[in-house]
Amino acid sequence: MKTEQKRWLIICVVATFFMSNSSCNKVVQGVPQVPCYFIFGDSLADNGNNNRIATMARADYLPYGIDFPRGSTGRFSNGKTVVDVITELLGFNDYIQPYANASGREILRGVNYASAAAGIRDETGQQLGARISFGGQVNNYVTTVSHIVGILGNANLAANHIKKCIFSIGLGSNDYLNNYFMRDYYDTSHRYTAKKYADALIQQYAKQIRILYNYGARKFVFNGIGPIGCSPNSLAQYSQDGSTCVAKINSANQMFNRRLISLVDYFNENLPDAKFIYINNYGIFRDLINRPKNFGFRVTNKGCCGVGRNNGQITCLPFQTPCQNRNNYIFWDAFHPTEAASTIVGRRSYSAASSTDVYPIDIRRLAQL
Questions:
Q1: Strand-by-strand arrangement of the 219-223 sheet
Q2: In the predicted model, is pLDDT for residue 104 greater than 90?
Q3: Segment 211-223, tens digit of pLDDT
Q4: Domain boundaries, the chain
């Protein structure tokens, strides 16, 4: 098993996983609630940025996209991702373009910079090949800002446009999956305790957020890490019974999330004219795991497609036949949620179903500010 994992390595992220039975294929038509939506993240949000780079972390082949109207675009899902769902709920008439493809005036409505296997740390995911780290994504945003200034004519107009936009940041999962807990490739677990590692991640995270703020960002969404220890990959590797979540991994994830919440408070108090919120992906996903029937799910510990124990050791292979009843599964592959799961997390991020889903407000209210 270990040889097979090293051969295929471990494609990106688990993170933040979610739910629902809905499978809308069309973007909601209407007037967007904000003028633009900028997305920073990993494979949970990547919609094509890794397609043209030398990496094993890519999903531009079937069965990825099997239920997406445009087919296999590079999304690590059978259909829509969480940010796609939120894009719809915000009222955009099309999905946000990946940085690799975005050009001209379309950048005024936002750009998706997410890159599969990316982490907060630059070295994270390097065993998979090329990827665009958080720092690289922020650099790409800075380039975008210069283009927006050129399109709108001056810096003041650009700043007035950008300050109304929502900035979604969803990184950190790979810093555990494809770094801290991958001891054969990285020494971070030997150099840091779990607490010190979370501190180091948050320090680097905060540095990038300050750059975004200095370049006009004012409405921030911090996406917490989901319970990675409950992913099919973690269950296949570390769980004795194949269904009990791995406590040591989830504990480390929660350490990071608690510090991310504190960062929300710190920035809300210290960065003028900005608003920061936190999405409790860990809590939302555990809700799905603990009460799957309430949300229409039947399978919580297996991937709909993939290879290895319970389809949980590696991701979907090209042209592999996935399960037929995809809406019954929380996980699409060893790491990523199905469209059905992503729909729920997107809805609960946008409009909280519980006071614990978000902190201090949800995306809907953030858009109104």
A1: 37-41, 166-170, 219-223, 275-279, 358-359
A2: yes
A3: 999 999 999 999 9
A4: 2-368
pLDDT on residue 300: 96
Residue 257 reports pLDDT greater than 80: yes
Say if residue 23's pLDDT is above 60: no
Residue partners of 163: CB distance under 8 A and separation at least 6: 216, 217, 218, 219, 273
Q: Is residue 193 within 8 Å of residue 119, measured between CB atoms?
A: no
pLDDT for position 26? 44
| Residue 232 burial by Cβ neighbours in a 10 Å radius (0-12, 13-18, 19+) | buried
Distance of alpha carbon 47 from alpha carbon 76, whole angstroms: 8
Mean pLDDT along residues 155-180: 98
With a cut of 70, say whether residue 24 has pLDDT above it: no
**For residue 2, which amino acid is it?**
K
Supply the residues annotated as catalytic: 43, 333, 336
| Mean pLDDT of the 293-306 span | 96
Separation CA 43–CA 336 (nearest Å): 8
**How far is the C-alpha of 94 from the C-alpha of 223, rounded, in Å?**
22
Q: What is the CA radius of gyration of the chain?
A: 19
Task: Return d(Cα 58, Cα 40) in angstroms, integer.
Answer: 17
Longest Cα–Cα distance of the chain, Å, equals 61
Only one residue has tokens 């665009």, namely 132
Per-residue pLDDT at 29: 53
Q: Please, what sign has the CA dihedral across residues 206, 208, 210, 212?
A: negative
DSSP 8-state assignment for residue 270? H
| Residues 117/133, Cβ–Cβ less than 8 Å | no
Question: Partners of 262 in the beta sheet?
Answer: none
**Backbone region of residue 48 per phi and psi (left: phi > 0; alpha: psi in -120 to 50; beta: other values):** left
2-368: CATH superfamily: SGNH hydrolase (3.40.50.1110)
Residue 115 sits at the vertex; the CA angle it makes with 125 and 278, to the nearest 5 degrees, is 100
Interatomic CA distance for residues 74 and 322, integer angstroms:
17
Rounded distance, CA 256 to CA 202, Å? Answer: 7
In angstroms, the CA 215 to CA 228 distance is: 32
CA distance 81 to 151: 30
